[in-house]
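Let's do one together. I've listed all components of the complex below, 522 residues spread over three lines.
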Amino acid sequence: MSYLVAAYVVTGLVLAGYALRLRAARARALRDTQLRS
Amino acid sequence: MVSALVTTLVQYLVSGLVMLSAVLAAAWLVWLSRDLPARIGGARGVGAAALALLALWLGLVVGYAPIEQVQGVVQKIFYVHIPAIIPTYLGFALTAVGGIGYLRTRAESWDQLAQSGAEVGVIFCTLMLVVGPIWAKPVWGHWWVWDLRLTSTLVLWFIYVAYLLLRGLAYGSDAARTFTSVYGIVGTAAIPFVYFAVDLAQGSTMHPSNPAREGLPAEMGRTVGAGMVAFLAVFAWLVARRMEIAALEARSPAARAPGALG
Amino acid sequence: MSGASVARAVFAKDLLLDFRTRDRLGHMAVFALLVVALLSIAVPASADERRAWSPALLWMVLLFASLLGLARSFQSEAEGGALALLVQAPVDRGWVFLGKAAANALALFGVALWTAVLFTVFLDVDWSEAWRPALAAGALGALGLAALGTLLAAMSVAVRFREFLLPVLLFPLVLPVLVLASSITGAALAGRPVPGLWWGVFALYDWVFVVLGYLVFDYVLED
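Okay, and this is what the predicted structure of the assembly comes out as:
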């Protein structure tokens, strides 16, 4: 049962983690291009 | 008799739906890459759909999918392991398509498609390699088993990593995008041969034989189908966002190392 | 100046270089000797186990030795000058790839033969019944390795950490060569027939990567 939970939790963490990194990078990139203009 | 017919029809519907979703996801991403600034708006909808589909899938896993006789509850890892497969392969497909596009047109947008496909693809590939052992340990007693699917996924992972490594090491030179395009193409071309080779080397396999061919119980089929569509939506949304970032960074004065999202 | 003659010229030049200097071939041969010797000392296997592992080991040795030869393929100074000249030739530069890959394939085949001899001497492998399929596997394997190896070596020459990069790029893609060649060799040594499918896939693999190499080399040389 713990294996089952572990599998889903890991998946959730990895995907959510990557999505959050993308969001941070996107915010940074938007700021950078706006600073330029 | 009629109910059996309906069940079969629904099964075909589910697999057809999955295949359609895969094609749609790929087509949308390629279309998106052609004019990203104008077309990125749709990504928000895809993201919302992804969340909804994930909720549906989880609901099905918990409430609808039956508990399997032999493996027990642990078998439900199946519903998170299998849906990761198509995004893994789709990542490669996008990398190859982007590579070909870049070599022929030298348009950066193709290279951004390739890079994003690889980055998100490797994530799903890694997920398979992590979840696989989590499933294998309680069921077979070993963390790692050299069966066909896990082994070929491992080699796929090596190809992904090699691609990203090449991109990282070549960064800054004009040739970087050309080289990664070439590697993306030959790397993807090698995949069917790798699969054949692993199969040949294995002889017998420990992996559960593909139940879809033996006739997956309807509830299982629908649950895993929902998972596949949900993961495809997530994949598409992640690649779209990654491409957006790449496009933005290309316009900004700050030079960024590829893959270093901060 | 036709494409084929360019290919022939490159092929001849590389081959001549190999035979005159004996650097590349010699280094690969010595390397193979060292590894096989170490293997036979360190691996405490029975005769049966040795026979079972030999095909795969032979091809692993070849794979590592090939790294030495492939890296050299584009590295010498003269090489840079010669390539620069060839690049200006008004032909499809894929022909340069074909010439180089052919030279590399021949070199690798030679090293494969040498390694097979070493395996007889050190590990008691008896080729008398198996030599025909083994030879064919050697040729197909050498070609497959050379095709991908030449292409990737050309790219890695321009990138940092090339000694690390080339194997990382190459090994996952040539796994099929390793498996197919050692499976065929193993079956031949055990006296079992080799399925036609294996030959077919092997030939297809070689063809795909020779063609791909030819098609993309133009882009690789540009940069």
